[in-house]
Amino acid sequence: MDPTPQTLLIVAGEESGDMRAASLVREIAALCPGTRFVGIGGNRCREAGVATFTDITELAVIGFTEVIRNFARIKRVFDLTLERARTERPVLAILVDYPGFNLRLARELKKHGIKVIYYISPQVWAWKESRVAIVKSNVDRMMVLFPFEKDLYDRHGYTADLVGHPLVDEVHADITRHEFLSHAGLDPHAPVIALLPGSRAKEISRHLPVMLAAASLMRQKRPDIQFILLKAKNLDQACFSPWLHLAPEKLKITEDYYNALGSCNSAVVCSGTATLETALMGKPMVVVYKTSWLTWHLGKFLVKIPYIALVNIVAGKKIVEELLQANASPAHLAAEALKTLFPSDKLLQELVRVKQLLGSPGASRRAALIVREELDR
User: Fold this and answer.
1) How confident is the model at residue 124, as a pLDDT?
2) Which of 28, 105, 248, 360 has the fewest other C-beta atoms within 10 Å?
3) Beta strands in 120-160 (DSSP E)
């Protein structure tokens, strides 16, 4: 049977992938009217027009121990994806991040003669650089977000396409600090620290208690400090409820991420994409990350870069403090977070440099043009 014209398989495995995939799908649809999209995604992908046969919640696990615990479910989704690929016969597959799943999927899709485009490279620069060989064998086109990723692939004799980071288009405030804080019932003239505990329930349970305890300690030293707790839209308020008794006075919860970031003086941020969002807003930060004992010790053995925060990785050096595992105690976090209220000119200049390294606006459009090139071949 001939491939169904203009049917694309989209596979995004978690919240950030859902966001990136949705933006890309919209751009492809604008460039290639009539294209049909099927695959794995969340609400954003569905709103963009992807007919999903599995939701990202089926794959939203982090850490070695969680993957092992949920292996049967992940395998079931993997088998279903291959079955749908055989029946839908897409002209190509676009795999978004989520390398533990998607690199294996790429290999199987290639066996079925399906062209594979990978969007958002596996972190081969952090660990398992040997995965470059897997990419070379199974991925027809790799689209990367960071210049250092393209450099790494070049060193291995594989040409990757640098498209830049789509966050450059997305991260901006719509209202002023005064408007946001006044509407939130906070004093626009007093300092504000944003708390970003993560976008997964497990991250909330590990980070939020420490962040709230640290916030209370900060209020003891600086009674004028106010706090904004940023809740990811994919999370239920119930994820926060067990810990809110630790919250200090003058704390507001919001889902209005970018207006909140634009209104704060600095932030305490869970390691991940949120560190880049905070950097794009030009805000000083302390990065926090806690995970299971097993995941942490396996990671220490496998990871070969000196930092875990993307903002430091992109900068190529440590520009913001990272508090990890036991080092992320309330007292230590409070002390470091208070320092961010008085950032040096050098730090602010480094944040500007990180923004420049993330590329110019139009990343999703550039990625869509690459997809169209492959569709036209």
Assistant:
1) 72
2) 360
3) 141-144
